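User: I'm preparing a small set of examples for a lab meeting where we compare how different chains pack in three dimensions. I only have the primary sequence for this one, and I'd like the structure in token form so I can line it up with the others. Please keep the answer compact; I'll paste it straight into my notes.
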Amino acid sequence: MKPSKCIVIFSLAAAFLVVGCGGGDSSTADSSSGDEPAPAQAAAPSEPIGSATISGVINFEGTAPESSRLRLDADCSALHDGVVMSQNYVISEEGNVANVFVYVKEGLSGHTFTPPAEPAVIDQHGCMYSPHVLGVQVGQNLQILNSDTFLHNINGQANDNRPFNFGMPKQGDERERSFRVPEIMLPIKCDVHPWMSAYLGVVEHPFFTVSDTDGSFSIEGLPAGDYVLEAWHEEFGTQTMSVSVTDGGSASADFTYTSTGAAD
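Assistant: Understood. Below is the structure token output for the 264-residue chain.
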């Protein structure tokens, strides 16, 4: 009898140890389920990528709106040397518009493209999202980082994909999500720091980009064909343009916003 009692006592102790090691910090739990990271994929055959390029510049004509000063809390302000401005209007003195998501909206039907193994990355740094606008391919992982030393909450407000909402309480935290269907655009915000915002474009193919601070963009490796290009800006809205390219050729696609959002 004595040996069997020892076995029972040991088993109960082990069970308590298992329960005690489970759970984890509740602040990191999902408050709504999101798509889990995509599993690692073996190389799969896909439609050959072409050799054509579409490039252009995003311009603004007229009196450009000004960004507003962000009112950061004390902890976040201490991470910056000066005033921090919102990123909804990033327009140079020359009238070039940054943070415009540009992608092929039409013209790729019948083609298939394997999602890249490398994840797209968004960081929470200085109580700001970096980058402010980014793209990811359907099935590609989005890697979410926290470079700050305190809690951030990342709230992905998806409509076509599953929304996600979870805390990242410490520096070095990493999470991943993937997306099953296209979505233009998916807003991201932090409920802890309400001024933090970002936008994610989810597309079925790799032909997308974001305009730089000089307004320039380039989409490379397109198959020859006729395409509809769309430019999206969080305040100015969307514009489309038809573009044709040949194998090894290049085409220009400049977009111009005005105070009314019209394009030239």
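A couple of notes for your slides: The two ends are 91 Å apart (CA to CA). The mean pLDDT is 86.

User: Perfect, thanks.
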